[in-house]
């Protein structure tokens, strides 16, 4: 089955030949998100913290459009133009991610498109549409012994 491509309503249309989101085999792949709002405004002059929150909002919106969420994240890659911003980003990210702790890489890069300061890409699982039911444990009975001293 070919991948499904999703265009989230809360994200500006892609500026190149790619999809914001591809869904395949129960997994959601979110393309690198930049601090660009739904109207297409690039937050070039915004503070790093504002850019980081916008990128995380974009990732969350992309996940939700594909039937997933932050709690179903598997891996996140973060690209920063200044690794000295890692502690500030980590605090913002921790508040955003909550109890979710996906695998993550933070990669310092010399520049990003449009002169922006942060980009994030992510992989998540699609959330089940119906709640999982826990399988009940079956009770095993010990084999009956018909002969004295027989092994199990």
Descriptive report:
The structure is a single chain. This protein has 152 residues and is of the alpha+beta class. The protein has 2 helices and 6 strands. Strands 1-2-3-6-4-5 form a 6-stranded mixed sheet, with helices on one face. Helix 1 packs parallel to helix 2. Mean pLDDT is 87; it is low at 131-152.
Question: In summary, what is this structure?
Answer:
The protein has 152 residues and is α+β, with helices and mostly antiparallel strands. Helix content is 20%, strand content 24%. The chain has a single domain (4-125), classed as RutC-like (60s Ribosomal Protein L30, Chain: A), CATH 3.30.1330.40.
CATH class: Alpha Beta
Structural class: alpha+beta
CATH homology group: RutC-like
Number of strands: 6
From the 3D structure, determine the CATH topology.
60s Ribosomal Protein L30, Chain: A
Main sheet specs: 6 strands, mixed
What is the average per-residue confidence, as pLDDT, rounded to a whole number? 87
Just name the CATH architecture: 2-Layer Sandwich
What are the key terms here?
20% helix, alpha+beta, globular, 152 residues, 60s Ribosomal Protein L30, Chain: A, 2 helices, single chain, 6-stranded mixed beta sheet
What's the SSE blueprint?
Elements: E1 4-6, E2 21-24, E3 27-33, H1 48-65, E4 73-80, H2 86-97, E5 103-108, E6 118-125
Parallel strand pairs: 4-5
Antiparallel strand pairs: 1-2, 2-3, 3-6, 4-6
Helix pairs in contact: 1-2
